[in-house]
Write a structure and sequence with these properties.
Ribosomal Protein S5, domain 2, globular, Alpha-Beta Plaits, 398 residues, alpha+beta, 8-stranded mixed sheet, 4-stranded antiparallel sheet, 2 domains, 38% helix
């Protein structure tokens, strides 16, 4: 499926176009889309230059953009607005581009601004002022990468508008730089890559060192199976100490082992020289998770969903016990899903909240969903948001 074949509901696109016209008084030059993602397996391995296996989902950030002419008032200023939480006219945030510095913009506006900042670090690129309106149905704080969907939709729009000729890999690297240096979140490169490179009905097997990737067919329809997302509604953020602390532990482990990254560690036995028990457990998760990604690819190619399911749960246990990035709500969602007959389940995303996924047979959607709702109610948790997702196409013009 090419980008020209992507079909976002026409009503949503037209609605965004009309909202843009009402807000800014002019039509946008176009509308671009970028999907959120579910990471099937391979958590926190990306910044350790390991392997990941995400897929783009059928929930997207749409951005409408119009570049300003040089004679316009505030021509060198970004005007950014979002329909999220806006009952009527969205609020416009204005960001001057002159003297723009990292971490000088807060809130959601930091993400498109970061992309502009990163592009303007390139030779012979000068992104000037524009008007932007975003409409996203990727749940915020859910671990489905709503922020990266916004960044990717912005960079694919600017690539087209300025005829920048950037490859998917270059755009992924630029949005990672935007996230790391401007926003201040020490994330890896998986989320942007999934949003940019994914193919419908496939997962994306990505080597985060070489940036080589290939599509791995998801044999869900053939097995009458679906991926159920359980958004715990416990919001998480990458701009906090928990994520950065995990990354520091991995860097410490690699330094002790005298390897470029934990990608270069083949077995858990090699970790025994690490005296710090906490650092050793953090490293153990990365080493075992890389192997689980490789095993999952093999299981998918063999059409063995039972094997995939076991690997998903092993991944969750590792994140819960060794990497310690789960929470009570995520654990409850995973255990309730499995008790109700799921093939496999795990938390997905950066952790400390967000979502879990359950691989289930289609006929189990209602039973598993109800079991999770009842488990949350019994534990006194806020009711989760539960929905199925489809493996969708990567970013492009809407």
């Amino acid at each position: 499926m090419s980008n020209s074949e992507i079909h976002e509901p026409a009503g949503r696109i037209e609605n965004l176009r009309q909202k843009f016209l009402k807000l800014y008084g002019r039509h946008p030059e176009g509308i671009w889309r970028a999907p959120g993602r579910v990471n099937l397996i391979g958590e926190h391995t990306d910044y350790n230059l390991g392997y990941v296996l995400p897929f783009a989902i059928d929930k997207n950030a749409l951005v409408a953009i119009r570049r300003k002419a040089q004679f316009e008032h505030s021509a060198n200023e970004l005007n950014l607005a979002s329909t999220y939480g806006a009952d009527e006219d969205p609020k416009v945030t204005s960001v001057p581009l002159d003297g723009l510095t990292p971490q000088s913009v807060s809130g959601w506006a930091a993400y498109p601004t970061a992309v502009v900042w990163a592009l303007n670090q390139l030779d012979d690129v000068e992104i000037s002022g524009f008007e932007l309106l975003v409409d996203s149905d990727v749940p915020v704080g859910s671990g489905l990468s709503s922020s990266h969907a916004l960044e990717v939709s912005t960079i694919v729009a600017l690539k087209d508008l300025y005829d920048l000729g950037l490859s998917h890999t270059q755009m992924a690297q630029l949005t990672q730089r935007a996230e790391n240096e401007f926003v201040g979140a020490p994330t890896g490169i998986m989320d942007q890559s999934a949003s940019l490179m994914s193919r419908a009905e496939n997962a994306l097997f990505l080597d985060c060192r070489s940036m080589e990737s290939r599509a791995v067919p998801l044999p869900l329809a053939q097995n009458d199976a679906v991926v159920l997302v359980i958004d715990t509604r416990v919001e998480h953020s990458h701009v906090d100490g928990g994520y950065a602390a995990r990354r520091r532990s991995c860097e410490q482990a690699a330094e002790i082992l005298r390897v470029p990254s934990l990608r270069d560690v083949g077995t858990v036995d090699e970790l025994q020289v690490i005296e710090d028990e906490l650092v050793r457990r953090r490293a153990k998760h990365i080493v075992t998770e890389n192997q689980r990604v490789l095993d999952t690819v093999q299981a998918l190619e063999a059409g063995d969903l039972q094997a995939v399911g076991k690997l998903l749960y092993q991944s969750h246990v590792s994140m819960r016990d060794d990497y310690e990035i789960s929470c009570e709500e995520l654990d409850t969602a995973v255990e309730a899903s499995l008790a109700a007959g799921a093939i496999g389940a795990r938390m997905t995303g950066g952790g400390f909240g967000g979502s879990s996924i359950a691989l289930i047979h289609r006929e189990q959607i209602e039973a598993v969903s109800q079991a999770v709702l009842e488990a949350f109610a019994q534990a006194g948790f806020k009711a989760p948001n539960i929905f199925t997702v489809v493996a969708d196409q990567g970013a492009g013009r809407a």
